[in-house]
Amino acid sequence: MKKIYMCFLCPVLLFTGCSAVHENEHSQSAQPAYGSPEETSGATTETNETPVHTSIAEMSRIKKIAKSVEYDEGESLLSSPPQITYQYSDEDYEYYSFIYGDEEFSVLHDNDNWKIFESYKIRNSEDMKLICQAMIDIDPVHGADMSSYRTTEDMAYEWIQHNIVYDLPGLDDEIKDSAANVDMDPKDQNMTIMEMYYNR
Hints:
The strands form two sheets. This protein has a five-stranded antiparallel beta sheet with strand order 3-4-5-6-7. The protein is built from six helices and seven strands. The chain has helices at about 10-20, 55-65, 125-140, 150-165, 175-180, 195-200, and strands at about 1-5, 70, 85-90, 95-100, 105-110, 115, 180-185.
C-alpha cells in the first residue's frame, strides 16, 4: 500500500541541522500518525558559513521534491510486538536488538531515548507501532511536557518522517546517514520536520 505525504517541506534542513547533535550520541502524543500534520512555515536565511541553512533556490527545489514523494509502506511482517533482546551495556548506553523479517536490527537506549539503526529498512506503519510498543514495554519515553509519555502512534509518525527524508533523491551522505537511523526522544513528539528543525 502506498501513501503520499504532502507536509514534509524541506526535510533536508532538519537532518542537516540535527545530525551533529545525534550522530555521535543518539540521536512526536495523541495526534494521528499518518495524516497530514499542519505545515509550519518559516523563512530560511542564507549564510556564507557552513551550509546548515539551504539557499532559497535550493529550498524551493527540495519543497517541490518533498511534496511529490510517494511513500511505500510495504507489507506488514508482524502480528505482535517483537522481542527486544538485551545485548550489553557500557558506561553510557544499553544495547538491544530485534529480528524483523530475516534481519537483525540494533537498538541503542539511554535516558528517555531509543535509537534504531538502519530503521529506513522498515516501512510498514503498523509494524513500526508494534516495534515501538516493545521498546515502551522496556522503558517508555517521556512526552514533550515531561509528564506524559510518548505513544506508539507518535513514535511511528516520527519514524515515517525519517524514512521520507531518506527516500528523497539527491541527498548528500551526511543527511542520508542521519535519516537512516530514527531516534525517539521527548522533544520531537508530534513535531513536523520543519518544527523539529527550528527547535534545534
